[in-house]
Write a structure and sequence with these properties.
This protein is of the alpha/beta class. The protein is built from seven helices and 14 strands. It has helices at 37-46, 61-64, 67-74, 97-104, 173-184, 203-209, 211-217, and strands at residues 2-7, 14-19, 25-29, 50-55, 77-81, 114-117, 122-125, 128-134, 143-147, 151-155, 158-159, 162-163, 192-195, 201-202. The strands form three sheets. A six-stranded mixed sheet has the order 1-2-3-4-5-6, covered by helices on one side. Helix 1 links the parallel strand 3 and strand 4. The protein is globular and about 50 Å long. The relative contact order is 0.14. The mean pLDDT is 95.
């Protein structure tokens, strides 16, 4: 499997590009900000890939800012959980007060084709088994994705050694605790974790070393 990424300059968000191999169809995950569409297009071209979909783990702008130019440019669908879809048009609904005035002065549009996701939905792409796992806490619609029981895309739910913040609008500490206990801890140790920020990790490593997961297992 080909897994490559570009780190967006603002907030150092990982935009993952995943395919079965070079020259194959690919998915784009969480293209961030500012507009990094040209960089992602170059990455896709470098590996001879053909985009077939954009997956969005949640509605924060640092994960969605470049999805419209990329999705519409390639003529592909964008997938987001139904609970966060409204953030594509009104991202201020899940951002802190310091950004509200700036965001109110900006106009946002959805990609041309958006598909709603719910927990357990299977997405038929890349000849792989891609499953959506609703994982609220960071936002109401935060979603993780497993790919072929090999990869776990976690967005801002789980990082190497940490978890996503829960203090922004639509975040919830209680929901995050439930997500970690019922959605993350039961996952297979061997899953390779691709987070929204920071380095890769594995479920096995995080189960043993992540203080937030260790606390729930005490």
């Amino acid at each position: 499997m080909l897994v490559t990424s570009f780190v967006a300059p603002m907030f150092a968000t990982n935009c993952w590009v995943i395919a079965a191999g070079p020259g194959q169809e690919c998915i784009i995950v969480d293209p961030g900000m500012p507009d990094i569409s040209h960089e992602i297009e170059a990455l896709i071209s470098e590996h001879g890939l053909k985009p077939v979909a954009a997956l969005i783990t949640h509605g924060h702008l640092d994960h969605t800012f470049s999805v419209k130019p990329l999705a519409d440019g390639y003529g592909i669908s964008s997938y987001i959980h139904t609970e966060d879809r409204d953030l594509l048009l009104k991202p201020q609904g899940a951002h802190g007060a310091e950004f509200i005035q700036t965001l109110d002065a900006m106009k946002f549009e959805e990609p041309n084709e958006v598909k709603n996701l719910r927990h357990g939905d299977e997405i038929d792409l890349l000849d792989m088994k891609i499953t959506a796992i609703h994982a609220p806490g960071h936002t109401r619609g935060s979603t993780m994705f497993t790919i072929n029981d090999e990869l776990l895309i976690t967005g801002d739910v789980l990082f190497a050694g940490s978890i996503g913040r829960t203090d922004l609008p639509s975040g919830s500490h209680e929901a995050m605790q439930k997500t970690l206990k019922t959605r993350v801890l039961p996952l297979n140790d061997g899953l390779r974790v691709l987070p929204g920020h920071g380095p890769e990790t594995t479920i096995k490593f995080e189960r043993k070393n992540n203080p937030y997961l260790k606390e729930l297992q005490a």
